[in-house]
């Protein structure tokens, strides 16, 4: 995280080989591996393009607003934790991606909380303490997760 805040460009190595060399913005928006995404605090799920959606390795489908590459193109679905909403009941309305989950962990990070939710897929949400209080969140709480299609970025691998 320090490199992202200080550097003009960042070189990421994996097993001694260059995995990615990019600006901090490019690295954050288009990480080339789930490890890089997690290191930067992003959600990233491997999968393939499947029509208008992304078929994740675990079997779930995510809808993305931007056009996807050719069918069966492998890649990562990347979503920032700030774009993830948590609900106590299944949400209605515009979110195209909705799934149930269980809160595994809640950790303070600065003035916000990072909430790890088990589900398909597992996700990290970033919320305010007042939102957590309104939802009465605790480890083991059952929640609904939602992510708008406009917040899903597909990064071809």
UniProtKB/TrEMBL annotation:
<keyword id="KW-0500">Molybdenum</keyword>
<dbReference type="InterPro" id="IPR005116">
    <property type="entry name" value="Transp-assoc_OB_typ1"/>
</dbReference>
<protein>
    <submittedName>
        <fullName>ABC transporter ATPase</fullName>
    </submittedName>
</protein>
<dbReference type="InterPro" id="IPR008995">
    <property type="entry name" value="Mo/tungstate-bd_C_term_dom"/>
</dbReference>
<dbReference type="Pfam" id="PF03459">
    <property type="entry name" value="TOBE"/>
</dbReference>
<dbReference type="InterPro" id="IPR004606">
    <property type="entry name" value="Mop_domain"/>
</dbReference>
<feature type="domain" description="Mop">
    <location>
        <begin position="92"/>
        <end position="156"/>
    </location>
</feature>
């Amino acid at each position: 995280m320090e490199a992202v805040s200080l550097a003009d460009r960042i070189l990421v190595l994996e097993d001694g080989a260059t995995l990615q060399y990019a600006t901090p913005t490019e690295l954050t928006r288009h990480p080339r591996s789930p490890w890089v995404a997690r290191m930067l605090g992003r959600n990233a799920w491997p999968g393939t393009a499947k029509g208008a959606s992304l078929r994740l390795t675990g079997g779930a489908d995510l809808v993305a607003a931007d056009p996807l590459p050719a069918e069966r193109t492998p890649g990562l679905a990347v979503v920032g934790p700030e774009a993830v909403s948590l609900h106590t009941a299944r949400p209605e309305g515009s979110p195209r991606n909705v799934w149930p989950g269980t809160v595994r962990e809640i950790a303070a990070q600065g003035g916000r909380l990072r909430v790890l939710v088990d589900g398909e897929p597992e996700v990290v949400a970033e919320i305010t303490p007042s939102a957590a209080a309104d939802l009465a969140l605790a480890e083991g709480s059952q929640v609904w997760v939602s992510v708008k299609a406009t917040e899903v970025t597909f990064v071809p691998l």
